[in-house]
């Protein structure tokens, strides 16, 4: 018997956020690439809670508490959460004025709304989207190269780690991120290829391998790397140049046999992906919830790619991307699991969760979450015990009782 959705029209009665401290085992270098933390430390994180007048709650993680309170909350209050398309468009339009609302914040709110709708309906989000499959093969996505002994500091270490991922852990594919500045000597196309060759040697011919290299190589450097990857029978070549230049990607993919994949970080959401398809720029499309602004636009891009018989590999893992992959046949072959490093225990849940969202079975598959909504296993006791004062993370330029829109207007006038 099919369960009918509820006939009532619940309305969000509050959109709030809790800010708390959590332990981090990863730290970013000067250019934003994550590496194992030399000294694990506490960092602050925001949990968004959207609650209806009937007491249902949807959760997500990320965003900025000031934006949630001053901009998002007024948009959400009084809206039916099933009107997610309307809410998403309203938030997206607000980006024009409040530039602090980036795609990741949009995604956090969109995911909390999907979670809320799933909780109200008593169904996992993947069931609501419509399933094509209930498990997805994962690839091991490594962190960028580093200078950590026994980490990812040499081609041989990449090879050793990839061998462990495939032969001990059961991954069905591996993606390398090469060495990037500020690592000394990076970027270096030859060193990237030496690592790729070491990984191919370590895992054998049958495992699909991908390279996500330094993102600002020149055309000629990217062409050389691509031709070397073809000799190593790599599966795809990801973001080797600045994605602002669509022409450079067309120039590259026209000359290579290896599939070139993108755009990943380029702004413009659905429209950018449509333009890249129309102009025949790449072989495989790219995007994830954090690049596009949520699960709502990600599904549109997936269907856009499908209508052109085009693969669209989903950028990044975690909850929103995983549920989306359950409903894909042609786009989205793999789940990106990581980022992984020999010194980081990916299987250990972070403090604020009781279980990780993406446990992998021995055959390298991630199964669709079966809990209602996104299927969070939130450790509310930990979060309540580690709440921090909002003042510690307040938006420094915001005056008391001033909305972000007020702030933007004031800054424009000052
Ligand atoms: Mg990438």
Instruction: From the alpha carbons, calculate the radius of gyration and give it in angstroms.
Output: 22 Å
Structural class: alpha/beta
Task: Summarize the biggest pleated sheet.
Answer: 7 strands, mixed
Following the backbone from N to C, one meets helices and strands in this order, namely: EEEHHHHEHEHEHEHEHEHHEHEEHH
Strand tally is: 12
Shape: globular
Can you count the helices?
14
Cofactors and ligands: magnesium ion
- Pick out the low-confidence regions: 391-400
Mean pLDDT across all amino acids: 92
* Helicity range: 25-40%
β-sheet strand percentage: 15-25%
Short synopsis of the structure:
It contains 14 helices and twelve strands. By secondary structure, it is an alpha/beta fold. The radius of gyration is 22 Å and the shape is globular.
Could you please describe the fold and organization of this structure?
There is one protein chain. The protein is of the alpha/beta class and 414 residues long. The chain has 14 helices and 12 strands. It has helices at 65-76, 84-94, 103-121, 125-129, 155-168, 189-203, 219-231, 246-255, 269-278, 289-292, 295-307, 319-326, 380-385, 404-413; strands spanning 12-28, 34-52, 57-61, 135-142, 173-177, 209-212, 236-238, 260-261, 285-287, 312-314, 335-340, 365-367. The strands form 3 sheets. Strands 4, 5, 6, 7, 8, 11 and 12 form a 7-stranded mixed beta sheet that branches. Strands 1-2-3 form a 3-stranded antiparallel beta sheet. The longest helix has 19 residues, at 103-121. Bound molecules: magnesium ion (MG). The site of magnesium ion has 4 residues, from loops.
């Amino acid at each position: 018997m099919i369960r009918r959705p509820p006939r009532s029209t619940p309305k969000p009665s509050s959109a709030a956020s809790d800010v708390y401290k959590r332990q981090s085992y990863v730290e970013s270098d000067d250019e934003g690439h994550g590496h194992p933390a030399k000294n694990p430390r506490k960092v602050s994180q925001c949990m968004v809670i959207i609650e209806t007048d009937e007491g249902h709650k949807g959760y997500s993680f990320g965003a900025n508490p000031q934006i949630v309170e001053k901009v998002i909350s007024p948009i959400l209050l009084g809206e039916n959460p099933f009107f997610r398309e309307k809410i998403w468009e309203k938030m997206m339009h607000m980006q024009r004025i409040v530039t602090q609302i980036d795609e990741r914040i949009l995604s956090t709110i969109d995911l909390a709304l999907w979670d809320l709708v799933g909780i109200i309906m008593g169904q996992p989000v993947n069931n609501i989207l419509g399933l094509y499959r209930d498990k997805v093969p994962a690839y091991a996505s490594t962190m960028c190269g580093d200078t950590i002994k026994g980490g990812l500091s040499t081609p041989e270490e990449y090879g050793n780690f990839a061998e462990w991922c495939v032969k001990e852990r059961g991954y069905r594919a591996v993606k390398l991120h090469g060495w990037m500045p500020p690592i000394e000597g990076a970027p270096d196309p030859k060193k990237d290829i030496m690592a790729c060759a070491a990984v191919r040697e370590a895992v054998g011919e049958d495992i699909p391998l991908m390279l996500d290299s330094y993102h600002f190589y020149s055309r000629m450097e990217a062409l050389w790397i691509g031709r070397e990857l073809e000799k190593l029978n790599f599966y795809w070549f990801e973001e080797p140049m600045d994605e602002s230049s669509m022409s450079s990607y067309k120039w590259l993919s026209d000359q290579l046999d290896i599939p070139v994949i993108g755009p990943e970080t380029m702004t413009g959401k659905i429209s950018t992906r449509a333009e890249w398809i129309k102009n025949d720029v790449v072989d495989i499309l790219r995007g994830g919830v954090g690049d596009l602004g949520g699960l709502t636009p990600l599904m549109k891009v997936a269907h856009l790619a499908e209508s052109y018989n085009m693969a669209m590999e989903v950028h990044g893992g975690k909850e929103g991307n995983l549920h989306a992959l359950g409903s894909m046949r042609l786009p989205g072959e793999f789940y990106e699991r990581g980022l992984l490093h020999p010194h980081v225990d990916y299987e250990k849940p972070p403090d604020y969760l009781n279980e990780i969202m993406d446990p992998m079975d021995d055959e390298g598959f991630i199964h669709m979450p079966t809990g209602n909504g996104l299927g969070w296993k939130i450790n509310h006791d930990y979060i309540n015990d580690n709440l921090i004062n909002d003042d510690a993370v307040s938006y420094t330029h915001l005056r008391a009782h001033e909305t972000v829109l007020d702030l933007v207007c004031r800054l424009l006038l000052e």
